[in-house]
Amino acid sequence: MVAIVLGILKIIGILLLIILGLILFVLFSVLLVPVRYRAEGSIYEHLKGSASASWFMRLISIKVSYDGEAQMDFRILWFHPGRGKDGEAENALEQELAERVETAEVKPEQVKTERTERAETCETEVYSETAKSEAAVQKTKIGETPKIPETETPDNVDLKSKKSSFLLSAIPERIRKCIANLKARIHRISQRFKKIARKFRQRKKQWETILTFIRDEENKKAFRLAKRQIFALIRHVLPQKLEGKIHFGFGDPYTTGQVLTWISPFYGLYGRHVQVCPDFMEPCLDGELKLKGRIRLGTLIFLAFRMFQNKQIRLWVKKWRES
Predict the structure, then answer these.
(1) What pLDDT is stored for residue 164 in this prediction?
(2) Alpha helix (H) residue ranges in 50-107
(3) Among candidate residues 44, 42, 76, the one with its CA nearest the CA of residue 58
């Protein structure tokens, strides 16, 4: 009986060890086996190119290519999931496009008749608008009456004197209104200046806090560590192999020179592998480019772990989440 129990426990232990080994194998393969990517493209007579990414000796791979039309292929082992559905969808789309083209066909005679009808309608509309404008002008001319010069009479003189006296009496009210308007404008201007001064004080406080934050020694150490890890991450992600040739020109020497000045700071990244040939006389764009690289998930996690070991960086992240 004891031997049977021990045998069962032995089998269970072996199974657990096998499961644990499989879990560790999958974990280490995910962390240490890199995702390899490559891309190549050229533009001479027409644009064509391809890009692919694979993992674990092409156990999982995806490829995208373009040569007049875009194509994509996704593969797990030797299976191509979704290929049948994509083919059916493409056939259905092709049928719909053919039907639309057939329905959109129109005879040239019908096009000519439609154009003549549209031109006639436009002429009638223009003629009606011009006729309406002429009729309106004639009406205004007919409705005009000659102005009769007014003769000054005693009644008119009395009215003028009354109006002048009314205007003189209204002068103090106008002055009060002008003074009130000036006070309101001065108040609005003062409020605006107060807002500007308040914003300036707030910005000044923010700038002082930023300066104190940057000048702190602990923060400086954290900045240097973050800078090292970020540059290491960029170096890891960038392609290991890069080669190509680019020939370009805009027909304008000034524009071509500006583009060269824009890309010159990055000469250290591409100068040894990519040949750049500017053309200052004629507009052109042709060339080819090939690149290859890999990304390892374990390296990314290690760099992030080293960066978040710093206490100051953890405090930055915590404050950022709270804000």
Answers:
(1) 55
(2) 83-104
(3) 76
Q: What is the model's pLDDT at position 125?
A: 54
- Give the sheet arrangement for strand 35-43, strand by strand: 70-76, 60-67, 47-55, 35-43, 283-295, 241-250, 274-278
300: which 2 tokens?
């990314």
Angle formed by the axes of helices 297-308 and 2-32, to 10°? Answer: 80
> What is the CB neighbour count within 10 angstroms for residue 10?
10
CB 11 within 8 A of CB 30: no
Fill in the amino acid letter for 186: I
- Rounded to whole angstroms, the Cα distance separating 41 from 107 reads 43
Q: What is the pLDDT of residue 143?
A: 45
Closest CA to 293 of 30, 27, 54, 70: 54
DSSP string, 122-187: HHHHHHHHHHHHHHHHHHHHHH--PPPPPPP-HHHHHHHHHHHHHHHHHHHHHHHHHHHHHHHHHH
Q: What is the pTM of this model?
A: 0.58
Cα 43 from Cα 63, distance rounded (Å) = 19
Name the nearest CA neighbour of 203 among 223, 192, 195. 195
- Per the CB < 8 A criterion, the answer to whether 210 and 223 are in contact is no
Residue 37 CA: distances (Å) to CA of 63, 230, 246: 10, 21, 22
Interatomic CA distance for residues 100 and 5, integer angstroms = 75
Which residues of the chain, if any, have pLDDT below 70? 82-172
| Residue 239: exposure state from Cβ atoms within 10 A (0-12, 13-18, ≥19) | middle
